[in-house]
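Our consortium's second objective concerns turning raw sequence data into structural hypotheses that experimental partners can test. To show how far this objective has progressed, the report includes one record in full. It was chosen at random from the queue rather than selected for favorable results. The single chain below, 156 residues long, was entered without modification.
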Amino acid sequence: MEIERKWKIETLPDGYDAYPCHMIEQAYLCTEPVVRIRREDDDYYMTYKSKGLLEREEYNLPLTQKSYEHLLKKADGIILTKKRYRIPVEKEQQETGLTIELDVFSGIYEGLVLAEIEFPTKEAALAFTPPEWFGEDVTFSGEYQNSRLSRGIESR
C-alpha cells in the first residue's frame, strides 16, 4: 500500500541540489489501471497502481534495459522526464525518517516542480504539516498525478 501526499512547489528551497538525486524517465502503457514503466538511473521497473489519491496499491517488478526499451515503444502519451532529489524531512517535523521526493521536471513540463512524501499510515499523512516552502497540496485533486500528466496538458 502506498500512502502519499503531493504538493506543487513554486519556489525551490535553497540548497536542494546538494541532495542525492536520480534521473527518471517514465511512460505509461495504461492509465486506468495505471501500468507504468520507469528508468531510474540504470534501474528499470514496471509498476501497477490501483485507483486512489492518498492511498493505493502499488506493485513494482524489475525489468531489464532491453525489456524497458521494448515496452517504451508501446507507451501511450508523453514520456515524462525529471530529476528527483531526495531530501530528509527536518527533525522538527512530527514524523521523522520521512523523505521529500522533489521532482524537477524537464521536457514538455519544464518548470513544473512537485514534492511527494510517502507515509507509514494514513493518520501520519493527514497529520503532517509541510515545510513552509511547500506550495498547494494537490494530493486530492489528482491533477498532478504522473499518469494524468502523461496524457497531456489538456487533460489537467
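The partners drew two points from this record. The chain has a mean pLDDT of 93. The chain is about 10% helix and 45% strand. Both points have been shared with the crystallography group to help prioritize constructs.
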